[in-house]
Amino acid sequence: MKFIDYLQRDKKCYFCLWIKGIYRRLGEANKVHECRVMIIAATTEDPETAMLETFLRRIPVTIKIPSLEERGFQERMKLICYFFKEESVRIGVKLKVSKEVIKAFILYKCKGNIGQLKSDIQLICARAFLELYDL
């Protein structure tokens, strides 16, 4: 089983693996390896516009997970709180987050979806941590 995240970025690399069941290891130009593999892939783009028809025909099941923007207020709030709690545990510091910060995270357009939301929360926690210790 192979999980491919952001399939739209390297779709050409996976074409031979997906269609023909062959691949080349990094740095090997001449040797071809055969394999049978189940592929699970994720993309942040609409598969209908980002992928070739050849790929789409070979995908037996497609599950659409709503983007962060498509989710309701409560779900966004839960995700934001969860990521702040997770970061608090990770750095071992109790965090106090202002209403303005929470509001900014609820309202901002997060192009990178949930992964970017998590990264952005980690980033502001790291910056606050540095400011706390005046580093």
TrEMBL record:
GO molecular function: ATP binding
Domain Sigma-54 factor interaction: 20-126
Name of the molecule in the record: Transcription antiterminator
Organism per entry: Clostridioides difficile (Peptoclostridium difficile)
Record keywords, A-Z: ATP-binding, Nucleotide-binding
GO process terms (BP): regulation of DNA-templated transcription
